[in-house]
């Protein structure tokens, strides 16, 4: 449905995430994947969704000079916010263990920001989902890390994987946001972009 409205636009998804790419396919959108490297660093003064907003916008910068009038560039970033700090992707197994252990028997927030960029304008939206873990044992955490190797995931876990199935007791907000993309917001914002 939306794809028909977007037929005069070229949708560019600047993400190497297989989960985000799959979501775009499931939304039945025609899109191209173009990747440009960027150093994902943010000022220390930023907190909460300011961090993911900043990083999503930062990822659009290398594309700015190359955009055509019909292009809509989509960049995105996900962080886990817990104990007043951002948890990004773990450096190694020990880092992953410490991240998951810190979230055991507590509630954290998963924040995904999505930035839409054209030659004329830019808009950034974000979604926040609260996720609660049961008390996880060290054995469960180690088994998950050794089996699923979640080193490409913010907060060192994927809700759709084994640890989500056995460990998550409550979720408030968008499930898809925790997987990596608030699909409802992407759909809604694209509709707004082409009608304005």
From TrEMBL:
One of its GO terms (biological process) is nucleotide metabolic process. It catalyses: dTTP + H2O = dTMP + diphosphate + H(+); UTP + H2O = UMP + diphosphate + H(+). NCBIfam families: maf. InterPro entries: ITPase-like_fam, Maf-like. It comes from Bizionia algoritergicola. Coiled coil: none annotated. The keyword Protein biosynthesis does not apply. Its cofactor is a divalent metal cation. This is dTTP/UTP pyrophosphatase. The active site is at residue 77. The record marks 19, 78, 160 as: Important for substrate specificity. It is found in: Cytoplasm. Its EC number is 3.6.1.9. Belongs to the Maf family. YhdE subfamily. Gene3D superfamilies: 3.90.950.10. It is an enzyme of class 3 (hydrolase). It comes from the Bacteria. Keywords: Cytoplasm, Hydrolase, Nucleotide metabolism. GO terms for molecular function: dTTP diphosphatase activity; UTP diphosphatase activity. One of its GO terms (cellular component) is cytoplasm. Pfam families: Maf. Nucleoside triphosphate pyrophosphatase that hydrolyzes dTTP and UTP. May have a dual role in cell division arrest and in preventing the incorporation of modified nucleotides into cellular nucleic acids.
């Amino acid at each position: 449905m939306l794809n028909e409205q977007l037929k005069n636009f070229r949708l560019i998804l600047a993400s190497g995430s297989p989960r985000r790419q799959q979501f775009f396919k499931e939304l039945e959108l025609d899109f191209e994947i173009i990747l440009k490297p960027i150093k994902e660093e943010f000022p220390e003064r930023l907190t909460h969704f300011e961090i993911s907003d900043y990083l999503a916008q930062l990822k659009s910068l290398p594309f700015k000079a190359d955009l055509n009038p019909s292009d809509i560039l989509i960049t995105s970033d996900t962080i886990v916010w817990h104990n007043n700090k951002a948890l990004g992707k773990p450096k190694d197994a020990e880092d992953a263990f410490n991240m998951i252990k810190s979230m055991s028997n507590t509630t954290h927030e998963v924040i995904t920001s999505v930035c839409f960029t054209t030659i004329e304008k830019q808009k950034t939206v974000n979604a926040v989902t609260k996720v609660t873990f049961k008390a996880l044992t060290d054995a469960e955490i180690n088994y998950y890390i050794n089996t699923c190797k979640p080193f490409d995931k913010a907060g060192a876990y994927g809700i759709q994987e084994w640890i989500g199935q056995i460990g998550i007791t409550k979720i408030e907000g968008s499930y898809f946001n925790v997987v990596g993309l608030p699909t409802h917001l992407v759909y809604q914002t694209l509709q707004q972009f082409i009608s304005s």
